[in-house]
């Protein structure tokens, strides 16, 4: 019986379809890549589509660090209705005529939600409250509060404002928006908070993630395309695109792989995770500066 070839270590940039959880995509990729060693960086809600970064084999070690990078979205916010989930998947809890909301008021509300802000995640998010997922508590009808957390919204822009009528006959406004934000920012919470500020309620009706760190939608493949041809970004290329590079010679490469903490050059002192490359563009490790030394975050060897 011949053994299956091991897939190469690297990242797969998936264009996630609507209706799939991030875990569904991981399960599908395990079948396509024929390995259990697949993970994802940064969850996308089932309703959302777009860039989902998967790691295969050794590249799973990169994922926790990639999840912390900046993200970019295109979405539609409906003003005039609140829902249980702050998006179109939840039951509508209130409807208010939004036709009198002015563009000036919208822009003022958007400005309040731009920059460094404190945000309360949606109650149906995957955040853990005392060890239990928030969505699980919400499903069981539990009353609880989620503490606000600091997030950064670098850009929140409205590209179009459309008059619409909801299914229940309520006049609503649909805003086509783009958002650039830090990891941990909930776009549906931005929709909810904008609607609350304007006094009419709001929720997210569509969301497409167009970028995670350096990985953009134009590099993403659908699951059907990946089924036809598995496209894996080699781990060295993936790390080189996402993190600053530090090149070392063969002697220091050996020391690093033997567990020696190398002296970290001053230029990388505040760089966050740094990808260390040895001769022949070989990715050795992901490290960060700690008291002037290179502390290993993940070793690839």
From TrEMBL:
tRNA pseudouridylate synthase B C-terminal domain boundaries: 188-231
GO function term, MF aspect, one: tRNA pseudouridine(55) synthase activity
EC assignment: 5.4.99.25
Signal peptide as annotated in the record: none
Reaction(s) this enzyme catalyzes, per UniProt: uridine(55) in tRNA = pseudouridine(55) in tRNA
GO biological process, one term: tRNA pseudouridine synthesis
Boundaries of every Pseudouridine synthase II N-terminal domain copy: 31-187
Keywords, sorted A to Z: Isomerase, tRNA processing
InterPro entries, A to Z: PsdUridine_synth_cat_dom_sf, PsdUridine_synth_N, PUA-like_sf, PUA_sf, tRNA_psdUridine_synth_fam2_C, tRNA_psdUridine_synth_TruB, TruB_C
Domain of life according to the entry: Bacteria
Name recorded for this polypeptide: tRNA pseudouridine synthase B
Species whose genome carries this gene: Streptomyces actuosus
Record lineage: Bacteria, Bacillati, Actinomycetota, Actinomycetes, Kitasatosporales
């Amino acid at each position: 019986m011949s053994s299956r070839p091991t897939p190469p270590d690297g990242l797969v940039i998936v264009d996630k379809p609507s209706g799939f959880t991030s875990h569904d995509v991981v399960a599908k990729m395990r079948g396509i890549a024929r390995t259990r060693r697949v993970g994802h960086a940064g969850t996308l809600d089932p309703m959302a589509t777009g860039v989902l970064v998967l790691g295969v084999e050794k590249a799973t070690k990169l994922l926790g660090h990639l999840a912390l990078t900046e993200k970019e979205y295109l979405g539609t916010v409906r003003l005039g209705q609140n829902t249980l989930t702050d998006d179109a998947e939840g039951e509508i809890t209130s409807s208010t005529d939004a036709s009198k909301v002015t563009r000036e008021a919208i822009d003022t509300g958007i400005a309040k939600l731009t920059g460094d802000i404190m945000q309360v995640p949606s109650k149906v998010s995957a955040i853990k409250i005392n060890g239990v997922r928030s969505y699980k508590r919400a499903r069981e009808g539990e009353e609880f509060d989620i503490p606000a957390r600091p997030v950064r919204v670098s850009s929140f822009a409205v590209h179009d404002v459309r008059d619409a009528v909801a299914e229940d006959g309520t006049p609503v406004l649909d805003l086509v928006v783009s958002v650039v934000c830090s990891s941990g920012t909930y776009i549906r919470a931005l929709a909810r908070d904008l609607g609350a500020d304007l006094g009419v309620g709001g929720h997210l009706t569509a969301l497409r993630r167009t970028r995670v760190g350096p990985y953009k939608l134009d590099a993403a493949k659908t699951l059907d395309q990946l089924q036809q041809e598995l496209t894996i970004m080699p781990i060295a290329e993936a790390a080189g695109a996402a993190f600053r590079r530090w090149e070392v010679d063969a002697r220091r490469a050996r020391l690093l792989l033997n567990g020696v903490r190398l002296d970290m050059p001053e230029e990388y002192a505040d760089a966050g995770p740094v990808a260390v490359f040895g001769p022949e563009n070989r990715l050795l490790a992901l490290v960060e500066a700690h008291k002037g030394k290179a502390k290993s975050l993940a070793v690839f060897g």
